[in-house]
Amino acid sequence: MSKIEHDNLILKDGLIIHSSIIIWIAGVKGYEIKVTPTTDKTRDDRIIVNGFCQIDKYTNIFVIGISLR
Q: Hey, where are the domains in the chain?
């Protein structure tokens, strides 16, 4: 990722990903985010995503930087 603007994530290759909500979290242990719908997580609270960084059953929700299944 290169930068974040109001409703956009701008990647290093210039690709712009539009999103109405961007949550930026960093750390060794996953941060507890209480959201609806609930999501599957690992033992250390990291959100589980598929190979496209999508939460299972919700193809319009992307999580980047999380361990893949």
A: 36-69
